[in-house]
Amino acid sequence: MRHLIDFGDLERREWDELYARADRIINCPEAYLDTCRGKVSCNLFYEPSTRTNFSFQTAMLRLGGSVFGFADPKSSSVSKGETLKDTIKMVSGYADVIVMRTPWEGAAKAASLYSDVPVVNAGDGGHMHPTQTTADLTTITRLRGSVDGMSIGLCGDLKNGRTVHSLIKALAKFQNIRFFLIAPRALAIPEYLRQFMRAHDMPFVEVTGLEPVIPQLDVLYMTRIQRERFADPQEYERNKGIYVLTRAKLGRARENLLVMHPLPRVDEISVDVDDDPRAVYFQQARFGMFARMALLADLANQPRLDPGPVEIGRSPVCHNPSCITQTERYLPPLVKQNGGVDCCAFCDAPL
Ligand code: NCD
Q: How far apart are CA 276 and CA 199, in angstroms?
């Protein structure tokens, strides 16, 4: 693995190796104090973050490395009109690994084309969030021994929730997973992911009600309605507060259910759930730090590599208004196939 842009690009063997390292780190963190000694991570956060930014920072510090970057793009040259390409060319000269979060879909992929060092996607708009997925899979595996064979309910804003999109991509690599996709119709999963699930023989049902399916689940993955992704504020008002998990609703759930959430929560999990032993979202956040240590231990220690020349694009082929190719017009017109359909290789939108 050179970059982590989309969990779908990882082979199952690569995930197993990453998890095995995370597991060893959790068992004996003292053995990793010097793993990244002298290495420097650049954290570019163009969007708000608490867990992801802090967990990447603490992961690097716990490995003996250091971190620089920004959490507010207004304090960088982006505000002077610098292109993403130039920012990446420059910081990849300073750092050994780049961790970036942006509101633009496909931005981490774009950065990887120009970087001499590995790039980690810490969230690109409503598209993907693969390192949250490493936290999620580490949590399930540590607490339940395996991910295979689980019935998993994904609940909330499945249209805009990048953590869910990443998790679905990852779960294609496991066996006998059944999915309950719980969302209002307006916030159902994107069509490209529906096609992806069909193409990978991943059985799923789409429902709008949470309570009827709770008894069937091994994992309930709650998500926040992603207010910042709504073009129409009325649409957000119509959907906010639609699902609220309470302790009473857990009454019919399995004894060994895992209630997960990437956090931050707004109101979709009531605080009376927090002390239920099935609520593991704060543990999940801590496992995320160890999973990120396992990732940085590999990526920050890779040799520098000139990515070579990149074709200059003339005008974007993708029509998704949130796609990075809309603002960074020089990006090459890369196309990939999703379930036989031509899609933008940056943001996955059908062309
Ligand atoms: C998520 C994100 O940023 O996509 N948070 C996180 O990284 N743990 C989920 C969210 O913001 O709802």
A: 37
